[in-house]
């Protein structure tokens, strides 16, 4: 697989060495990965540098091979029963990786756990699982997008310009254009590509569900030094990004105050209880789009105090929703009255 990402290749090397008790030579790895020996040596050196338990040994006839070898001070990778059970119960959290190399490796590990436990133990775990249900609504299905995600990872890892075929939410036809992929982020059940769009001279976010195709080119790009996805998304209430910081103040009625206090919604949040039992929440964000939807979900129990523009947008939205239902209710009543007259 000459066109696979460096990350996937390195993952495959680790998987191969983990499965071969006597290890493999550099030449064997090069043939298996379809790359030159220099690339394999760089990968192995990187593994050793970061502390993976790999060693080079000399066997019969001077044959040098690499294998997984834990030192006396380094415990082998084995799990206690409760650790294996916890990993198995948490397997659904890996659903967003479906279709990728990492998903396949995880499924292999879960198969081994299932084989070791047997049917009775698995039935017991299923009962526990029912009591620890992971409820996810609207999660993306990436089981058929493994090859596409691998292309995105290749562009990210190798720093290569990537052409996307993308159909935005409002578009009727897909559009193709180049991006510089910086990373992937997972939010509310969906994967998003964070990439610099040279045609627009700005960083944009692309929902992977809407990417129909991706092709990595040979053109390199320079990722900004010190760029961090965490820092980039720090001002976002999700994945929407703006250019200026905005301070948002929301008052929640006592009936909703405790619910809001129970969670950390954003790193900038400041929650202060008021004398009447209400809650004053303050956020500093770069975009109001997602927090607007969040506030709307509380109905009349949440009131935006500032900024004025967001307050007006919410008022307009509330009026639009109210007018819609009033008109629908009146229309339904009129239809019922006409049917009643015809029945006479």
What does this 3D model show about the protein?
The protein is an alpha+beta fold and about 350 residues long. It has four domains: about 5-70, Winged helix-like DNA-binding domain superfamily/Winged helix DNA-binding domain (Arc Repressor Mutant, subunit A); about 80-130; about 145-230, SH3 type barrels; about 235-344, Alpha-Beta Plaits (2-Layer Sandwich). Helices cover about 40% and strands about 20% of the residues. The chain has ten helices and eleven strands. It has helices spanning about 5-20, 25-35, 35-50, 80-90, 100-130, 145-160, 230, 255-260, 290-295, 310-344; strands spanning about 55-60, 65-70, 160-165, 175-185, 190-195, 200-205, 210-220, 245-250, 270-275, 280-285, 300-305. The strands form three sheets. It has a five-stranded antiparallel β-sheet with strand order 6-5-4-3-7, with helices on one face. A four-stranded antiparallel β-sheet has the order 9-10-8-11. It has a two-stranded antiparallel sheet with strand order 1-2. A hairpin with a 2-residue loop joins strand 4 (about 175-185) and strand 5. Helix 2 (about 25-35) crosses helix 3 and helix 4 (about 80-90) packs across helix 5. The longest helix has about 35 residues, at about 310-344. The radius of gyration is 27 Å and the shape is elongated.
